[in-house]
Amino acid sequence: FLIKGNTIYSPSKNIYKGVTYNFFKKKFGKIRNKEISINSLNSYNEILLIGSGKAVTSVATIKEINWKRKGLKYYKILSNFYKKEILKCSVYR
Q1: Contacts of 6 (CB under 8 A, 6+ apart)
Q2: Across-strand partners of 2?
């Protein structure tokens, strides 16, 4: 996910919309699918990687394009949603 302002974006191509993606889509309702180029990454505040194996991970920097995250707001929100859901499962208690 890529965050700009208060909007969550997802690449429109070449992504796997699995269980974790669909979980967050239900929580947030609107995730905008958009073709995202490397040249546009500097306009985003946060870049988040999601998946069953890593849950939610915040990208701190991308040195090759001199991108640096500008906050952790959505990382904290998504991470908390995910942790709460995991704790509902008896296997993880």
Answers
A1: none
A2: 9, 47
- Using the predicted structure, report yes or no on whether residue 84 has a pLDDT greater than 70: yes
Distances, alpha carbon 87 to alpha carbons 31, 80, 83, in Å: 25, 11, 6
Amino acid at 33: N
| Predicted local distance difference test score (pLDDT) of residue 91 | 67
Give the DSSP letter of residue 36: -
Count of alpha carbons within 13 angstroms of residue 55, beta-carbon side: 12
Nearest of 21, 75, 12, 85 to residue 52 by alpha carbon: 21
What is the C-alpha to C-alpha distance for residues 68 and 50, in angstroms, rounded to an integer? 18
Q: Which two tokens stand for residue 55?
A: 């849950």
This model's pTM is above 0.85: yes
